[in-house]
Design a protein that fits this description.
By secondary structure, this protein is mostly helical. It has one domain. 61% of the residues lie in helices and 5% in strands. Strands 1-2 form a two-stranded parallel ribbon. Helix 1 links the parallel strand 1 and strand 2. The radius of gyration is 15 Å and the shape is elongated. It starts with a strand and ends with a helix.
Length: 84
Amino acid sequence: MIVTENVRHFPPAALQPLHIGVSTTDEFLAGVIAGHQQRAVIAIRAMRERFQKPELTAAELLRRMDGIGLNQTVSLLSRELTAP
């Protein structure tokens, strides 16, 4: 799998014979999270808790992720990360 925002530089016709896929960062992360949601939520919570300067709330982390274009990822995580 090639993970890139420049998917147009990797045409399917060139990648299919090599059995390689191409995906944006958001598509890749959303796919991994969808397949392993519970583990992903635990990992992302742990990552968020390591932020010290400044500390980040779940809502702030999701806003940052959304701001860099991880819209599908945020959609999958928003309920789980903001739950108590």
